[in-house]
Design a protein that fits this description.
Elements: H1 4-18, E1 30-38, E2 41-51, E3 57-63, E4 66-70, E5 72-76, E6 79-83, E7 89-97, E8 100-107, E9 115-122, E10 140-146, E11 154-162, E12 167-174, E13 177-178, E14 182-187, E15 190-196, E16 201-209, E17 212-219, E18 223-231, E19 245-246, E20 257-258, E21 264-265, E22 276-282, H2 287-303, E23 308-316, H3 321-335, E24 340-346, H4 349-355, E25 359-360, E26 367-371, E27 377-382, H5 391-409
Parallel strand pairs: 22-23, 23-24
Antiparallel strand pairs: 1-2, 1-9, 2-3, 3-4, 5-6, 6-7, 7-8, 8-9, 10-11, 10-18, 11-12, 12-13, 12-14, 14-15, 15-16, 16-17, 17-18, 19-25, 20-21, 22-26, 26-27
């Protein structure tokens, strides 16, 4: 005899079987190829996915000679989240199987709706698809012009190298900084380069046309422009020390901003008296500022005992001041910044000009202001040539060290 309780048990068992189960999918460790969809064009880069003995996941993103260590990765069932260090961006996706992850990259500093679709494949070690060759027709220094004939036009120096099997690396030096570590390949008469650093998603392509190259530059899904180049090993940009300068009637830097604990800081504070002071106009969202911060950190550690100090003046992209301060604290802790950081407000050239009224023509993050022991501004450097620029970076480091040593060698002001 079938009882009512027996039927209830059968229904309960069947309903339990009908409940969906969360899938547990473990991605492969080792080499992966990320493909970001820039409105139909693929921006690729490589990363290594690792799993430690404690079951925590990490990754290493590769851009030419640069390696970016990513330590904030979560895997929950089939959900994958990889948060970038320093910059407020993250990959969120589904692990479809052990060799494919698919989802969206979110750059929160560009707004809640800024996202780029991605697909990542395990085991793919090439950056760009298609056959490569080893010709060196792109290698060398190129006089380069972006957005020629428009209001957005600017000049640059293209620096490219070619290695075995058509592998290409390089960067572009501009008057406001550089495009960091680009990596790609040569396919017959075409050049492809890409870079992803957590803030920037850069894709460059170009084709040889006689003695010139014609190309396209895409930055995420929000910007693209044409560029051209001609080979010119002697091409130079304007002197970076001539682009931003003091307004008439000023010879000192004058400001008061809160540090990350809320204390007001000014270069005229007693703690900075008789010191050589470097004022770094920067933002935690700016990869060139990261490169400069690393160099200034080393310089500070080397010369602090002789009287060198640094104040980083941060202009951030968060509307909320609390989030801006949190981001700066994370930036300072991640890079181990030993010197003072102050928060000056929202990031824009207009804001920087308003908050730093002694400066004329603020045009770049970063900008570095050199102040001598007497408190006088002696030099203003616009932009930064980072380690991806090779000889330009090494030359600036030598020049900077020599200038700092010169300022340190000057006598201190007599006590009043």
């Amino acid at each position: 005899m079938i009882t009512r309780s027996f039927i209830a048990c059968i229904i309960l068992a069947l309903s339990g079987c009908a409940q969906p189960r969360e899938r547990e999918v473990i991605p492969r460790t080792g080499a992966w190829r990320m493909e970001m969809d820039l409105a139909g064009e693929v921006l690729p880069f490589q990363f290594e996915l690792q799993r430690g003995a404690d079951q925590t996941w990490t990754a290493s993103i590769k851009n030419a000679s640069e390696t970016i260590a990513v330590k904030d990765i979560e895997l929950h069932h089939d959900t994958f989240v990889m948060r970038m260090p320093l910059f407020d961006s993250e990959f969120r996706g589904l692990v479809l199987n052990d060799s494919v992850i698919q989802g969206e990259w979110y750059n929160h500093l560009k707004g809640p709706d800024y996202r780029i679709h991605f697909v990542a494949h395990a085991g793919k070690t090439h950056r760009f698809e298609g056959p490569s060759n080893g010709t060196g027709r792109f290698a060398g220094t190129w006089e380069t012009h972006f957005s020629a004939g428009t209001a957005d036009a600017y000049n640059a120096i293209g620096i490219f190298e070619q290695g075995p099997e058509g592998r290409a690396t390089g960067t572009f030096v501009t008057e406001t900084g550089d495009y960091r570590f680009l990596e790609g390949s040569v396919h017959n008469d075409s050049l492809w380069l890409s870079c992803f650093d957590g803030s920037h998603a850069f894709l460059f392509n170009a084709t040889l046309r006689g003695d010139s190259i014609m190309g396209r530059f895409r930055s995420g899904t929000h910007w693209q422009e044409a560029w051209t180049g001609v080979r010119n090993p002697d091409y130079e940009l304007r002197n970076p020390d001539s682009l931003t300068f003091l307004k008439e009637g000023y010879d000192m830097a004058d400001f008061t901003f809160p540090d990350l604990e809320g204390n007001d800081i000014s270069p005229h504070d007693p703690r900075f008296r008789n010191k050589v002071l470097l004022l770094q106009v920067m933002g935690s969202w700016c990869p060139n500022c990261v490169d400069e911060t690393v160099m200034l950190k080393d310089l500070h550690e080397e010369y602090a005992a002789q009287g060198l100090d640094v104040i980083a003046i941060a202009f951030e992209k968060y509307m909320d001041d609390t989030k801006a301060i949190e981001g700066l604290k994370r930036y300072k802790a991640t890079l181990g910044v030993p010197y003072t950081m102050v928060y000056a407000g929202m990031a824009s050239k207009e804001q920087a000009a308003a908050k730093l009224p002694f400066l004329d023509h603020v045009m770049s993050y970063p900008t570095c202001i050199f102040v001598d022991r007497a408190g006088k501004v002696r030099r203003i450097r616009t932009g930064f040539y980072g380690p991806s620029t090779g000889k330009h970076y090494e030359a600036y480091k030598r020049n900077l060290r020599h200038f700092v040593e010169q300022l340190l060698s000057e006598p201190m002001a007599a006590d009043s």
